[in-house]
Specification:
445 residues, five-stranded parallel beta sheet, alpha/beta, 19 strands, Fumarate Reductase Iron-sulfur Protein, Chain B, domain 2, single chain
């Protein structure tokens, strides 16, 4: 009998659990923190930022009270600077490179300062950018996630018209559907979409999927250029018997349901939850299950803590929320009764050649009524096919692109998670920006 139920915690507690996990700096705190910056001329933090934000410059402007100038410095390089301030792993990028780390092992809080500036401008001037003079060129963008939105905004600044085709009912991509609700609280993802669209010249058609409602060849005929930001639509399976048991779910679907729920107190969750995986999706799923009221939540990963793609800060965050993390084990068998999952048998693993995990020989079992699979997402090329053939090149399971994000098809560019690189919001924004500049150069000669 299943023990998956809603209402494990009072509604007020649920609301508090899914409120903003990291409240913003106060004006005084921001000025004090900005004063810690050395404003380095050859700032290593700037080199570590995938979008190349002039970090010393925007921090110095916060210190002098110029919040508008600070925010514009950020947004000119990263139009999704507001969400990146909240979800970017600054601890392994700009803040790790901060020279303060060498002195006191406490970097300047760059992410928090970025949020202070961007939040201020979005509140006081929600439309600071204007579309450039119309060029008569029309570009199609497939996908309204970070890469697609960044590309569309930069193209609009240059005066081009953009139509975005988005397969889901809402724009925002992973920011709307794939990130823990407490990281982007208060409908921030949609407020940011509105901020991007305020530039003008960008139109979005929702519930329009590539491969179902139109094909790539049609886009090539109708538009002057195409940018593909279609993400990773497939989810890896465990490939174990019993994977269809009730209570076994993809973690990305669990997170999306949480993100879209108007009343999280009505969301069912297991009493004992096991999450399989070692990335940010596993952390977000496990932590949110705990905050929904699951009494026992365990993440199981096949290798050691240093091998997890989730950062050390994310792992600590999960454990602070009462999530256990067990390493060196891989699922071996799903157990069930009457079609409902009741447990998982794990095979212990150990380090093998080339850092791979190999079986250690013995097993253990965890009882559970809910299993969340977070073992990775994969690129699905089928929507790109036309007449049964794939027209553009794919390498190592992603769309092949050059430094300008050009694909093997003339006039077709790609970026975000569907191409090789860091699977991060900030990296997707940079892909969109680089592609937009290349498209502009190509169209305008």
């Amino acid at each position: 009998m299943t023990d998956i139920a809603a209402g494990r915690l009072p509604p007020a507690q649920i609301a508090a659990n899914f409120a903003d996990a990291h409240p913003p700096l106060t004006p005084h705190e921001a000025v004090v923190e900005a004063s810690r910056c050395y404003y380095c001329y050859d700032a290593p933090c700037m080199e570590a930022c995938p979008t190349g934000i002039d970090i010393p410059s925007f921090i110095k402007k916060i210190g002098t009270g110029n919040l508008r100038g600070s925010a514009l410095t950020i947004f000119e390089q990263n139009i999704l600077g507001g969400s990146c301030a909240r979800v970017c792993p600054t601890e392994i990028l700009c803040e790790r490179a901060c020279v303060r780390m060498a002195e006191e092992e406490r970097p300047v809080r760059i992410g928090a300062l970025q949020r202070r500036a961007t939040d201020w401008l979005m509140e006081h001037d929600p439309a600071p950018f204007q579309r450039g003079p119309a060029t008569g060129k029309h570009i199609a963008v497939v996908g309204a996630g970070p890469a697609g939105l960044a590309c569309a905004h930069r193209l609009a600044l240059h005066g081009h018209e953009v139509t975005i085709f988005e397969g889901r009912p809402k724009s925002g991509g992973l920011n709307e559907y794939g990130i823990a609700a407490y990281k982007l609280a208060d409908d921030f993802a949609q407020r940011e979409v509105a901020f991007v669209l305020s530039v003008g010249g960008i139109h979005i058609e929702h519930d329009k999927q590539l491969g179902r409602d139109f094909d790539l060849a049609t886009l090539q005929r109708r538009f002057d250029a195409v940018f593909l930001a279609i993400g990773l639509s497939g989810v890896r399976a465990l490939e174990l018997e019993g994977e269809s048991f009730a209570g076994v779910r993809n973690a990305v679907d669990f997170i999306a349901e949480l993100r879209q729920s108007g009343n999280k107190a009505n969301l069912p969750v297991g009493r004992s939850v096991v999450v399989i995986g070692g990335g940010n999706t596993a952390i977000d799923a496990a932590t949110q299950a705990r905050r929904l009221g699951a009494e026992d939540v365990t993440i199981v990963y096949r290798r050691g803590p240093g091998d997890m793609s989730a950062t050390a800060d994310e792992q600590d965050w999960a454990q602070t929320n009462g999530v256990r993390i067990r390493h060196w084990a891989t699922p071996h068998r799903l157990l069930g009764r009457d079609g409902q999952v009741t447990g998982i048998e794990f095979m212990r693993t150990q380090p093998g050649a080339n850092g791979r995990a190999v079986p250690a020989g013995d097993t253990f079992t965890l009882e559970t009524d809910m299993v969340l699979k977070a073992v990775g997402q994969v690129f699905i090329a089928d929507p790109l096919k036309s007449d049964g053939s794939l027209a553009l090149a794919v390498e190592d399971g992603r769309i092949a692109v050059d430094a300008d994000r050009r694909t093997s098809l003339p006039g077709v560019f790609a970026g975000g998670d569907c191409v090789a690189g860091l699977d991060l919001t900030v990296a997707a924004v940079q892909d969109g920006k680089v592609a937009a500049l290349a498209i502009h150069r190509q169209l305008m000669g």
